[in-house]
């Protein structure tokens, strides 16, 4: 299985060669998409990724650095569908989000005719298993990056289990502590946001845990202004650390 990084930046002002957060798990020729920051469909398609293999899109929360590319991603799939005369390989595409507004808003931008060739579904995220098929299980757990309202929790992290491997994706979190239960149980990959947290403190915090590889993404200004030196410092604490860049592909 592979991880594709389409956007590695947090919600900063634009930075050269970096777009806001989006990545996908590529397993058994199927793409499970996580967050949809600006330009993610463009980055993926121009890198040769087959967008007709997307089956599920998980949005961790409604902030624009995680959602800005959603309408364009759905539009590009539609474009490929009509140009290649092929439907998405796995049928309807499901969008998961804590708020239906994100999904409805994307469809509103796309206009009514958009739905004419392939269908999309919406699932409201709550704690527990969101998706389970023969190969992949995705479990959501709320965090407090966004304050809950009467309608429920508004931001989530994910545990992704794929054929015996465990991946944890932080989304945006109020505190790394919120991920402790999953991290202390051990994981093959941890994708951790650095927009709100110091990468060296994160490495110190989890250096004794069984983390196969720690991927930092959702970079904030602090990490971007001191990328190489900070990476060196992190690797002194925890050797298996990568600071992700847009376009990176990792085999797991
Ligand atoms: Zn963010
Ligand atoms: Zn956020």
Supply the key terms.
252 residues; alpha/beta; Metallo-beta-lactamase, Chain A; seven-stranded mixed β-sheet; 14 strands; 30% strand; binds zinc ion
| Percent helix range | 25-40%
Strand order of the largest sheet: 6-5-4-3-2-1-14
CATH superfamily: Ribonuclease Z/Hydroxyacylglutathione hydrolase-like
- Please give the CATH architecture: 4-Layer Sandwich
Bound molecules: zinc ion
Instruction: Return the average pLDDT rounded to an integer.
Output: 96
Structural write-up:
The termini are close together. The chain has helices at residues 40-46, 64-67, 70-84, 100-110, 180-184, 199-206, 221-224, 227-237; strands spanning 2-7, 22-27, 30-34, 54-58, 93-97, 120-124, 128-132, 136-142, 156-162, 165-169, 187-193, 211-217, 241-243, 249-251. The chain has a single domain (2-251), classed as Metallo-beta-lactamase, Chain A. The chain contains eight helices and 14 strands. It has a seven-stranded mixed beta sheet with strand order 6-5-4-3-2-1-14. The site of one zinc ion has 9 residues, from helix 2.
């Amino acid at each position: 299985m592979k991880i594709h990084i389409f956007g590695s930046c947090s919600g900063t002002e634009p930075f050269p060669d970096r777009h806001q957060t989006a990545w996908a798990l590529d397993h058994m020729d199927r793409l499970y998409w996580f967050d949809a920051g600006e330009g993610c469909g463009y980055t993926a398609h121009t890198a040769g990724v087959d967008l007709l293999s997307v089956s599920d899109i998980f949005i961790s929360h409604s902030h624009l650095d995680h959602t800005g590319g959603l309408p364009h991603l759905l539009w590009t799939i539609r474009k490929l569908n009509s140009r290649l005369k092929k439907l998405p390989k796995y049928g309807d595409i499901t969008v998961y989000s804590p708020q239906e507004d994100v999904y409805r808003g994307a469809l509103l931008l796309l206009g009514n005719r958009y739905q004419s060739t392939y269908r999309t579904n919406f699932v409201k995220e709550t704690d527990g298993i969101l998706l389970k098929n023969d190969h992949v299980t995705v479990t959501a757990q709320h965090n407090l990056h966004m304050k809950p309202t009467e309608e429920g929790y508004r931001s989530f992290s994910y545990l992704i289990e794929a054929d015996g491997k465990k991946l944890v994706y932080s989304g945006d979190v109020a505190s790394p502590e919120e991920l402790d239960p999953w991290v202390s149980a051990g994981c093959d990959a941890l994708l951790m946001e650095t927009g709100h947290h110091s990468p060296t403190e994160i490495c110190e915090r989890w250096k004794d845990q069984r983390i196969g590889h720690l991927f930092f993404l959702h970079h904030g200004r602090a990490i971007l202004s001191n990328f190489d030196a900070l990476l060196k410092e992190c690797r002194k604490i925890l050797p298996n650390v990568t600071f992700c860049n847009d376009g990176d592909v990792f085999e797991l």
